[in-house]
């Protein structure tokens, strides 16, 4: 009965933490969503916004890769450092922050160099537009560097079971740019001011995260100073993220071969998928991943049950969400298409339905990535990424040839589901390895006890 009560209590804690993480994710992303809606009405569509979105897209590429590598790989190591004591955790946070700052600076220098080359050959851009784009990218480069380093602080707070505030704080970065859209200057000056305020917002967020993490560090018990690193697990994750980032390019390139608007249709559908996927990833999956880190660290026999329970929860939530969205967009698809200026002659509903039905597969892929990172078994991730990219390329080509642009969406959905099954097999295999290792440790301890007796 006591065990049942303990398990029930842990499930209540998990649900509570998941709810806080979901609220934090919504609060953190809401200002950015509003900013996306406010930019075009405030600035209009023209050369200034072209320059801004070009620079923002380039900056977002290294930022996304760096953050998605740093956040999951730092978390399990930060948990171990926290267990080692106050000194080890404090040293780990400071060391990782400095190293990610250096890595992000290097990534942005490469991005800027590539941008100079690309913009130089943009013959239809004016000199003023090229200058504005490079200036905006240089400013946004500071955002990339600081934001990637702040990912270390986010992960360390997650490792200490603090989810709401780090996730909600991500809204700080877009509050000032949102004000600029309504009250600030417009035109080229407004673009630079908006880029600058995005940087200021991220710096303010970083200061606030340092303030929030300080009492957590002070509350940890003292211990022997130990050093921890993440690079052995971070490099495979980084390679996998670089490969995965090519997947959307494949679909968009193939869609671009069809009638005008097809590429936009595929892009809009993917963007609609990302909203529920991000909510699931940074609520259920994030909290479950932090719990798995602790169970693996303790070599707990409850790991298999907990992972199965987490996979079941993500499957139910993602499948239900996909069904509701498909039904809702099926009823309102024509209205949405009219609002987005998408011609009804395109396979709008078919592409949207196929893309959204890929939500369960995409969510399980994120579960698998989170678990393998928690177990520090990331060496298999580049294989999954490469196999997925190859399958997407072949599947999209075949699907597009058979049924047109909708075939791209259906093929991508199929690849996501197949990859998800592969991740589930990998998860069970790693759990089996951990269980065999635990059984071996138990036998060795038992034999040692018998010898002493």
Structure description:
The protein is mostly helical. The protein folds into 2 domains: 20-229, no CATH class; 232-443, no CATH class. It has 15 helices and no strands. α6 (172-183) runs antiparallel to α7 (187-219), α11 (303-339) packs antiparallel against α12 (348-356) and α13 (359-374) packs parallel to α15 (405-452). The longest helix has 48 residues, at 405-452. The protein starts with a helix and ends with a helix.
Task: List the keywords.
453 residues, mainly alpha, 2 domains, 86% helix, globular
Write the layout of secondary structure elements.
Layout: H1 2-43, H2 47-84, H3 86-120, H4 127-159, H5 164-168, H6 172-183, H7 187-219, H8 231-244, H9 247-255, H10 262-297, H11 303-339, H12 348-356, H13 359-374, H14 381-403, H15 405-452
Helix pairs in contact: 1-6, 1-10, 2-3, 2-4, 2-7, 2-8, 2-10, 3-4, 4-7, 6-7, 8-14, 9-10, 9-14, 10-11, 10-12, 10-13, 11-12, 11-13, 12-15, 13-15, 14-15
Q: Which residues sit in consecutive blocks of at least 5 with pLDDT less than 50?
A: 447-453
H and E order:
HHHHHHHHHHHHHHH
Based on Cα principal axes, name the global outline.
Answer: globular
Assembly status = single chain
* Alpha-carbon Rg, integer: 23 Å
Counted up, domains total 2
Strand count, sense and barrel status of the largest sheet are: none
Query: Structural class of the helices, strands and pairings?
Result: mainly alpha
End-to-end Cα distance, whole Å, is 34 Å
Strand % is under 5%
What count of helical segments does DSSP give? 15
Number of strands: 0
Level of helix content? over 70%
């Amino acid at each position: 009965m006591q065990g049942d009560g303990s398990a029930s209590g842990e499930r209540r804690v998990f649900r509570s933490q998941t709810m806080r993480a979901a609220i934090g994710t919504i609060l953190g992303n809401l200002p950015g969503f509003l900013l996306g809606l406010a930019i075009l009405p405030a600035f209009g569509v023209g050369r200034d916004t072209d320059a801004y979105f070009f620079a923002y897209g380039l900056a977002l590429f290294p930022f996304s890769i760096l953050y998605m590598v740093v956040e999951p790989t730092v978390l399990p190591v930060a948990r171990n450092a926290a267990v080692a004591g106050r000194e080890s955790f404090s040293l780990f946070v400071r060391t990782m922050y400095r190293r990610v700052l250096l890595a992000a600076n290097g990534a942005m220098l490469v991005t800027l160099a590539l941008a100079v080359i690309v913009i130089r050959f943009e013959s239809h851009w004016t000199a003023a537009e090229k200058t504005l784009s490079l200036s905006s990218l240089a400013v946004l480069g500071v955002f990339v560097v600081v934001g990637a380093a702040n990912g270390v602080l986010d992960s360390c707070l997650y490792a200490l079971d603090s989810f709401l505030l780090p996730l909600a704080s991500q809204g700080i970065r877009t509050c000032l740019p949102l004000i600029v859209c309504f009250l600030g200057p417009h035109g080229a000056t407004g673009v630079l001011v908006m880029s600058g305020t995005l940087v200021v917002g991220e710096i303010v967020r970083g200061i606030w995260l340092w303030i929030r993490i300080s009492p957590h560090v002070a509350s940890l018990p003292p211990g022997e100073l130990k050093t921890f690193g993440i690079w052995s697990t971070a490099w495979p994750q980084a390679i996998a993220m670089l490969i995965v980032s090519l997947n959307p390019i494949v679909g968009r390139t193939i869609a671009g071969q069809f009638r005008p608007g097809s590429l936009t249709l595929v892009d809009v559908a993917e963007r609609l998928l990302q909203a529920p996927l991000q909510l699931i990833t940074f609520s259920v999956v994030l909290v479950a991943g932090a719990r798995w880190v602790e169970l693996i660290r303790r070599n707990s026999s409850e790991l298999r049950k907990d992972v199965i329970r987490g996979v079941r929860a993500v499957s139910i939530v993602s499948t239900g969400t996909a069904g509701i969205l498909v039904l809702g967009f099926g009823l309102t698809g024509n209205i949405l298409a009219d609002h987005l200026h998408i011609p009804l002659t395109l396979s709008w509903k078919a592409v949207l339905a196929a893309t959204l039905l890929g939500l369960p597969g995409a969510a399980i892929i994120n579960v698998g990535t989170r678990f393998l990172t928690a177990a520090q078994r990331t060496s298999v991730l580049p294989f999954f990424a490469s196999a997925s990219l190859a399958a997407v390329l072949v599947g999209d080509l075949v699907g597009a040839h058979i049924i047109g642009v909708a075939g791209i969406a259906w093929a991508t959905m199929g690849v996501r589901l197949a990859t998800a099954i592969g991740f589930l097999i990998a998860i069970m295999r790693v759990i089996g390895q951990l269980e065999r290792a635990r059984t071996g440790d138990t036998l060795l301890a038992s034999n040692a006890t018998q010898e002493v007796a």
